[in-house]
Amino acid sequence: MFRRLILPAAVLLALTTGCAGAGQEPAEPSGGATPKITLGFSAWPGWFPWQVAQEQGLFAKNGVQVELKYFDSYTDSLNALATGNIDANSQTLNDTLASVAGGAEETVVLVNDNSTGNDQIIAKEGVTSVAGLKGMTVAAEQGTVDHYLLLLALEKAGLTEADVTFQPLPTDAAAAAFVAGRVDAVGVFAPFTTTALKRPGSAPIATSADFPGAIPDHLVVNKKLLDRDAKGVQALVKTWFDTVAWISANREKALEIMAKRAGVSVADYETYDKGTTIFTLEQNRTAFSDELPARAKQISDFLVASKLVDAAPPLDGLLEPKFVMAVQP
Protein backbone atom coordinates (compact mmCIF):
# COMPACT_ATOMS: atom_id res chain seq x y z
CA MET A 1 0.00 0.00 0.00
CA PHE A 2 1.28 3.46 -0.89
CA ARG A 3 0.07 6.31 1.29
CA ARG A 4 0.74 10.03 1.33
CA LEU A 5 -0.98 12.41 6.19
CA ILE A 6 -0.98 10.61 9.36
CA LEU A 7 -3.18 11.64 12.27
CA PRO A 8 -1.40 12.92 15.39
CA ALA A 9 -2.90 10.11 17.47
CA ALA A 10 -1.07 7.60 15.32
CA VAL A 11 2.14 9.60 15.59
CA LEU A 12 1.77 9.77 19.35
CA LEU A 13 1.29 6.02 19.47
CA ALA A 14 4.41 5.55 17.39
CA LEU A 15 6.35 7.94 19.62
CA THR A 16 5.30 6.17 22.82
CA THR A 17 5.45 2.54 21.67
CA GLY A 18 7.62 2.84 18.60
CA CYS A 19 9.23 0.28 16.39
CA ALA A 20 12.27 -1.74 17.40
CA GLY A 21 14.98 0.69 18.39
CA ALA A 22 12.69 3.72 18.69
CA GLY A 23 14.08 6.42 20.94
CA GLN A 24 17.64 5.08 20.76
CA GLU A 25 20.44 7.36 19.66
CA PRO A 26 21.90 6.42 16.27
CA ALA A 27 25.13 4.50 16.59
CA GLU A 28 28.24 6.58 15.99
CA PRO A 29 30.40 5.40 13.08
CA SER A 30 33.67 3.77 14.05
CA GLY A 31 37.10 4.62 12.79
CA GLY A 32 36.14 8.05 11.48
CA ALA A 33 33.85 6.64 8.79
CA THR A 34 31.36 8.97 7.15
CA PRO A 35 28.02 8.76 9.00
CA LYS A 36 25.28 7.07 7.03
CA ILE A 37 21.99 8.88 6.54
CA THR A 38 18.84 6.79 6.12
CA LEU A 39 16.48 8.49 3.68
CA GLY A 40 12.89 7.29 3.26
CA PHE A 41 10.59 7.76 0.29
CA SER A 42 7.43 6.20 -1.12
CA ALA A 43 5.15 6.23 -4.16
CA TRP A 44 4.84 9.77 -5.46
CA PRO A 45 6.21 11.20 -8.74
CA GLY A 46 8.01 14.01 -6.94
CA TRP A 47 10.03 11.52 -4.86
CA PHE A 48 11.01 8.91 -7.44
CA PRO A 49 14.03 11.05 -8.46
CA TRP A 50 15.71 9.74 -5.29
CA GLN A 51 15.82 6.35 -7.01
CA VAL A 52 17.67 7.99 -9.90
CA ALA A 53 20.13 9.58 -7.46
CA GLN A 54 20.92 6.20 -5.97
CA GLU A 55 21.30 4.31 -9.25
CA GLN A 56 23.48 7.01 -10.80
CA GLY A 57 25.79 7.37 -7.80
CA LEU A 58 24.89 11.00 -7.16
CA PHE A 59 24.84 10.68 -3.37
CA ALA A 60 28.41 9.37 -3.39
CA LYS A 61 29.43 12.13 -5.80
CA ASN A 62 28.44 14.64 -3.13
CA GLY A 63 30.28 12.78 -0.39
CA VAL A 64 27.28 11.49 1.54
CA GLN A 65 26.61 7.86 2.43
CA VAL A 66 22.88 7.23 2.06
CA GLU A 67 20.78 4.20 2.80
CA LEU A 68 17.76 4.80 0.60
CA LYS A 69 14.73 3.08 2.09
CA TYR A 70 11.58 2.61 0.02
CA PHE A 71 8.33 2.25 1.96
CA ASP A 72 5.37 0.42 0.46
CA SER A 73 3.32 2.19 3.14
CA TYR A 74 3.77 5.95 3.25
CA THR A 75 2.29 5.93 6.74
CA ASP A 76 5.12 3.67 7.85
CA SER A 77 7.65 6.17 6.52
CA LEU A 78 6.03 8.94 8.57
CA ASN A 79 6.16 6.80 11.69
CA ALA A 80 9.77 5.86 11.00
CA LEU A 81 10.82 9.51 10.86
CA ALA A 82 8.72 10.46 13.89
CA THR A 83 10.34 7.73 16.00
CA GLY A 84 13.88 8.35 14.76
CA ASN A 85 14.19 5.06 12.93
CA ILE A 86 15.14 6.94 9.77
CA ASP A 87 16.92 10.28 9.55
CA ALA A 88 15.00 11.91 6.72
CA ASN A 89 11.83 11.33 4.76
CA SER A 90 9.92 12.54 1.71
CA GLN A 91 6.52 13.83 2.84
CA THR A 92 3.94 16.56 2.36
CA LEU A 93 3.76 19.76 4.37
CA ASN A 94 0.38 18.87 5.85
CA ASP A 95 1.69 15.43 6.83
CA THR A 96 4.66 17.08 8.50
CA LEU A 97 2.44 19.53 10.37
CA ALA A 98 0.25 16.68 11.60
CA SER A 99 3.31 14.75 12.77
CA VAL A 100 4.66 17.82 14.58
CA ALA A 101 1.26 18.34 16.18
CA GLY A 102 1.60 14.78 17.50
CA GLY A 103 4.96 15.52 19.11
CA ALA A 104 7.51 14.75 16.39
CA GLU A 105 10.55 17.03 16.01
CA GLU A 106 10.99 17.58 12.30
CA THR A 107 12.31 20.26 9.96
CA VAL A 108 11.63 20.94 6.29
CA VAL A 109 14.89 21.53 4.38
CA LEU A 110 13.87 21.22 0.71
CA VAL A 111 10.82 21.57 -1.53
CA ASN A 112 10.76 18.62 -3.93
CA ASP A 113 7.61 19.69 -5.76
CA ASN A 114 4.08 21.02 -5.66
CA SER A 115 1.20 18.75 -6.52
CA THR A 116 -0.42 20.40 -9.53
CA GLY A 117 -2.99 17.81 -10.48
CA ASN A 118 -1.72 14.40 -9.40
CA ASP A 119 -3.94 14.41 -6.30
CA GLN A 120 -7.49 13.93 -7.51
CA ILE A 121 -11.09 13.43 -6.46
CA ILE A 122 -12.43 11.04 -9.11
CA ALA A 123 -16.17 10.43 -9.48
CA LYS A 124 -18.31 7.90 -11.28
CA GLU A 125 -20.03 8.58 -14.58
CA GLY A 126 -22.74 11.22 -14.28
CA VAL A 127 -21.15 13.14 -11.42
CA THR A 128 -19.54 16.20 -12.95
CA SER A 129 -18.89 18.46 -9.97
CA VAL A 130 -18.04 18.30 -6.29
CA ALA A 131 -21.51 19.65 -5.51
CA GLY A 132 -22.86 16.51 -7.15
CA LEU A 133 -21.29 14.38 -4.41
CA LYS A 134 -23.96 15.39 -1.90
CA GLY A 135 -25.47 12.25 -0.43
CA MET A 136 -22.92 9.99 -2.12
CA THR A 137 -20.20 7.73 -0.72
CA VAL A 138 -16.61 8.92 -1.09
CA ALA A 139 -13.57 6.83 -0.18
CA ALA A 140 -10.12 8.10 0.83
CA GLU A 141 -7.52 7.28 3.40
CA GLN A 142 -8.62 9.01 6.59
CA GLY A 143 -6.32 11.83 7.60
CA THR A 144 -4.31 11.61 4.41
CA VAL A 145 -3.46 14.29 1.93
CA ASP A 146 -6.37 13.31 -0.30
CA HIS A 147 -8.79 13.41 2.63
CA TYR A 148 -7.43 16.94 3.04
CA LEU A 149 -8.03 17.61 -0.68
CA LEU A 150 -11.58 16.28 -0.35
CA LEU A 151 -12.29 18.65 2.53
CA LEU A 152 -10.86 21.60 0.58
CA ALA A 153 -13.03 20.71 -2.43
CA LEU A 154 -16.17 20.26 -0.35
CA GLU A 155 -15.61 23.60 1.37
CA LYS A 156 -15.16 25.34 -1.99
CA ALA A 157 -18.44 23.77 -3.16
CA GLY A 158 -20.29 24.97 -0.07
CA LEU A 159 -20.45 21.48 1.48
CA THR A 160 -18.91 19.71 4.46
CA GLU A 161 -17.96 16.11 5.10
CA ALA A 162 -21.37 15.68 6.75
CA ASP A 163 -22.94 16.10 3.29
CA VAL A 164 -21.31 12.88 2.03
CA THR A 165 -20.83 9.40 3.42
CA PHE A 166 -17.10 9.20 3.99
CA GLN A 167 -15.62 5.71 3.63
CA PRO A 168 -12.12 5.52 5.17
CA LEU A 169 -9.92 3.09 3.24
CA PRO A 170 -6.18 2.82 2.52
CA THR A 171 -5.39 4.55 -0.76
CA ASP A 172 -4.87 1.39 -2.81
CA ALA A 173 -8.02 -0.20 -1.36
CA ALA A 174 -9.99 2.99 -1.99
CA ALA A 175 -9.00 2.95 -5.65
CA ALA A 176 -9.96 -0.72 -5.93
CA ALA A 177 -13.32 -0.14 -4.23
CA PHE A 178 -14.07 2.67 -6.66
CA VAL A 179 -13.20 0.56 -9.72
CA ALA A 180 -15.41 -2.23 -8.35
CA GLY A 181 -18.35 0.18 -8.00
CA ARG A 182 -18.56 -0.03 -4.21
CA VAL A 183 -18.19 3.74 -3.75
CA ASP A 184 -19.28 6.71 -5.85
CA ALA A 185 -16.06 8.71 -5.72
CA VAL A 186 -12.52 8.41 -4.44
CA GLY A 187 -9.63 10.61 -3.36
CA VAL A 188 -6.31 9.25 -4.65
CA PHE A 189 -2.86 10.34 -5.77
CA ALA A 190 -0.67 9.18 -8.65
CA PRO A 191 0.02 6.38 -9.46
CA PHE A 192 -3.36 5.29 -7.99
CA THR A 193 -5.15 7.79 -10.20
CA THR A 194 -4.28 5.45 -13.07
CA THR A 195 -6.01 2.59 -11.25
CA ALA A 196 -9.12 4.58 -10.34
CA LEU A 197 -9.63 5.89 -13.86
CA LYS A 198 -10.02 2.34 -15.16
CA ARG A 199 -13.67 2.58 -14.08
CA PRO A 200 -15.63 3.29 -17.26
CA GLY A 201 -16.95 6.85 -17.46
CA SER A 202 -15.06 8.05 -14.41
CA ALA A 203 -13.32 11.43 -14.39
CA PRO A 204 -11.63 13.86 -11.97
CA ILE A 205 -14.00 16.47 -10.56
CA ALA A 206 -11.38 18.22 -8.38
CA THR A 207 -7.59 18.08 -8.34
CA SER A 208 -4.71 19.72 -6.55
CA ALA A 209 -4.43 22.03 -9.57
CA ASP A 210 -7.61 23.70 -8.27
CA PHE A 211 -5.77 24.64 -5.06
CA PRO A 212 -2.40 26.05 -6.11
CA GLY A 213 0.31 25.55 -3.50
CA ALA A 214 -1.94 23.66 -1.10
CA ILE A 215 0.04 20.41 -1.36
CA PRO A 216 3.80 20.98 -1.37
CA ASP A 217 6.09 17.95 -0.98
CA HIS A 218 9.35 18.08 0.92
CA LEU A 219 12.53 16.53 2.20
CA VAL A 220 11.99 16.53 5.96
CA VAL A 221 14.67 15.62 8.50
CA ASN A 222 14.68 14.60 12.13
CA LYS A 223 16.04 17.54 14.12
CA LYS A 224 18.66 15.25 15.66
CA LEU A 225 20.19 14.85 12.21
CA LEU A 226 20.58 18.62 11.92
CA ASP A 227 22.61 18.62 15.12
CA ARG A 228 24.57 15.48 14.24
CA ASP A 229 25.36 15.96 10.56
CA ALA A 230 24.42 19.30 9.02
CA LYS A 231 27.07 18.69 6.36
CA GLY A 232 25.28 15.50 5.36
CA VAL A 233 21.96 17.34 5.11
CA GLN A 234 23.63 19.89 2.85
CA ALA A 235 24.90 17.06 0.66
CA LEU A 236 21.38 15.57 0.41
CA VAL A 237 19.98 18.91 -0.74
CA LYS A 238 22.80 19.38 -3.27
CA THR A 239 22.23 15.84 -4.56
CA TRP A 240 18.57 16.63 -5.22
CA PHE A 241 19.41 19.48 -7.59
CA ASP A 242 22.15 17.42 -9.27
CA THR A 243 19.55 14.69 -9.79
CA VAL A 244 17.02 17.05 -11.31
CA ALA A 245 19.72 18.23 -13.72
CA TRP A 246 20.66 14.63 -14.58
CA ILE A 247 17.03 13.76 -15.28
CA SER A 248 16.71 16.75 -17.59
CA ALA A 249 19.81 15.66 -19.54
CA ASN A 250 18.94 11.94 -19.57
CA ARG A 251 15.16 11.93 -19.70
CA GLU A 252 14.64 8.56 -21.40
CA LYS A 253 16.83 6.65 -18.96
CA ALA A 254 15.43 8.56 -15.98
CA LEU A 255 11.86 7.74 -16.98
CA GLU A 256 12.73 4.05 -17.17
CA ILE A 257 14.18 4.14 -13.64
CA MET A 258 11.28 6.05 -12.13
CA ALA A 259 8.55 4.09 -13.93
CA LYS A 260 10.10 0.81 -12.78
CA ARG A 261 10.12 2.00 -9.16
CA ALA A 262 6.50 3.16 -9.54
CA GLY A 263 5.42 -0.15 -11.04
CA VAL A 264 3.87 1.49 -14.10
CA SER A 265 4.74 1.79 -17.77
CA VAL A 266 6.90 4.63 -19.02
CA ALA A 267 3.89 5.91 -20.98
CA ASP A 268 1.76 6.01 -17.83
CA TYR A 269 4.56 7.68 -15.89
CA GLU A 270 4.83 10.41 -18.51
CA THR A 271 1.18 11.32 -17.91
CA TYR A 272 2.13 12.41 -14.37
CA ASP A 273 4.46 15.18 -15.60
CA LYS A 274 1.98 18.06 -15.56
CA GLY A 275 0.53 16.97 -12.23
CA THR A 276 3.79 17.30 -10.34
CA THR A 277 5.82 20.50 -10.63
CA ILE A 278 9.43 19.85 -9.58
CA PHE A 279 10.89 22.93 -7.91
CA THR A 280 14.06 24.56 -9.18
CA LEU A 281 16.66 26.01 -6.83
CA GLU A 282 15.27 29.51 -7.39
CA GLN A 283 11.72 28.31 -6.70
CA ASN A 284 12.96 26.70 -3.50
CA ARG A 285 14.54 29.93 -2.34
CA THR A 286 11.40 31.90 -3.14
CA ALA A 287 9.21 29.35 -1.37
CA PHE A 288 11.22 29.43 1.84
CA SER A 289 11.41 33.22 1.79
CA ASP A 290 7.87 34.12 0.80
CA GLU A 291 5.43 31.24 0.51
CA LEU A 292 6.01 28.41 2.97
CA PRO A 293 5.65 30.29 6.28
CA ALA A 294 2.21 31.59 5.27
CA ARG A 295 1.23 28.25 3.73
CA ALA A 296 2.20 26.38 6.90
CA LYS A 297 0.02 28.67 9.01
CA GLN A 298 -2.88 28.33 6.55
CA ILE A 299 -2.67 24.53 6.52
CA SER A 300 -2.31 24.40 10.30
CA ASP A 301 -5.46 26.47 10.76
CA PHE A 302 -7.36 24.27 8.30
CA LEU A 303 -6.23 21.04 9.97
CA VAL A 304 -7.45 22.34 13.34
CA ALA A 305 -10.75 23.63 11.94
CA SER A 306 -11.36 20.32 10.16
CA LYS A 307 -10.44 18.37 13.31
CA LEU A 308 -7.68 16.49 11.53
CA VAL A 309 -5.45 17.55 14.44
CA ASP A 310 -6.36 18.26 18.05
CA ALA A 311 -4.18 21.35 18.43
CA ALA A 312 -2.12 23.57 16.16
CA PRO A 313 1.49 22.39 15.76
CA PRO A 314 4.33 24.69 16.83
CA LEU A 315 5.78 26.36 13.74
CA ASP A 316 9.08 27.57 15.22
CA GLY A 317 11.90 25.60 13.65
CA LEU A 318 9.62 23.92 11.12
CA LEU A 319 11.34 25.51 8.11
CA GLU A 320 15.12 25.70 7.60
CA PRO A 321 16.09 27.59 4.41
CA LYS A 322 19.88 27.68 4.92
CA PHE A 323 20.54 24.51 2.95
CA VAL A 324 18.89 25.61 -0.29
CA MET A 325 20.39 29.07 0.17
CA ALA A 326 23.89 27.53 0.34
CA VAL A 327 23.60 25.49 -2.87
CA GLN A 328 25.74 26.92 -5.65
CA PRO A 329 23.78 27.18 -8.94
TrEMBL record:
Q: Which SUPFAM superfamilies match?
A: Periplasmic binding protein-like II
Secretion signal, residue range per the UniProt entry: 1-22
Q: Indicate where this protein resides in the cell.
A: Periplasm
Pfam families on file: NMT1_2 (PF13379)
What's a single GO MF annotation on this record?
ATPase-coupled transmembrane transporter activity
Superkingdom classification of source: Bacteria
Key words of the record: Signal
The record, for InterPro entries, names: ABC_SsuA_sub-bd (IPR010067)
The primary location reported for this protein is: periplasm
Keyword hit for Nucleotide-binding: no
Please give an example of a GO cellular component term from this record: periplasmic space
- Family annotation (CDD domains): PBP2_SsuA_like_6 (cd13563)
Write out the similarity annotation. Belongs to the bacterial solute-binding protein SsuA/TauA family.
What the entry lists under NCBIfam families is as follows:
SsuA_fam (TIGR01728)
Q: Supply the name of the protein.
A: NitT/TauT family transport system substrate-binding protein
